[in-house]
Amino acid sequence: IPIPLHPKKQQKRGYNQSDLFAEGLSETMGINWSPEAIKRSVFSDTQTRKTRYNRWKNVDSIFAIQHTEQLHSKHILLVDDVITTGATIEACATEILALPNTKVSAVTIACAQHIA
Questions:
Q1: What is the C-alpha separation between 60 and 73, in angstroms, rounded?
Q2: Beta bridge partners of 79
Q3: How far apart are CA 110 and CA 84, in angstroms?
Q4: Which of 44, 62, 109, 116 minimizes the number of CB atoms within 10 Å of its CB?
Q5: C-alpha–C-alpha distance, residues 113 and 115, integer Å
Q6: HEC profile of 11-76
Q7: What's the pLDDT tens digit per position in 41-87?
């Protein structure tokens, strides 16, 4: 499952790079890809120049599970483009882990080395 963008941001950008990565992983690994299972329900500011704490606060409670039946009792692979502090992955994983018997792993294309 890709980390979702808010619809406004995706419309402006024209694509979600995490979704494209997740789709490719799905095809290569022969596993389901579920781009609409989780929704970003709140438009949040860019994380780019935020501190670790402010990144965490910026993504707190912004994700909502759309299709609990797809995720219940599954091991979910969350896909993001870049991980810096892990705040976005953590916020999304927290929502998934609230479902019974659910596990979460994460994969990313890149990791940032430093944060202010």
A1: 24
A2: 2, 107
A3: 9
A4: 116
A5: 7
A6: HHHCCCHHHHHHHHHHHHHCCCCCCCCEEECCCCCCCCCCCHHHHHHHHCCCEEECCHHHHCCCEE
A7: 766 655 556 566 565 556 667 888 998 888 999 999 999 998 888 88
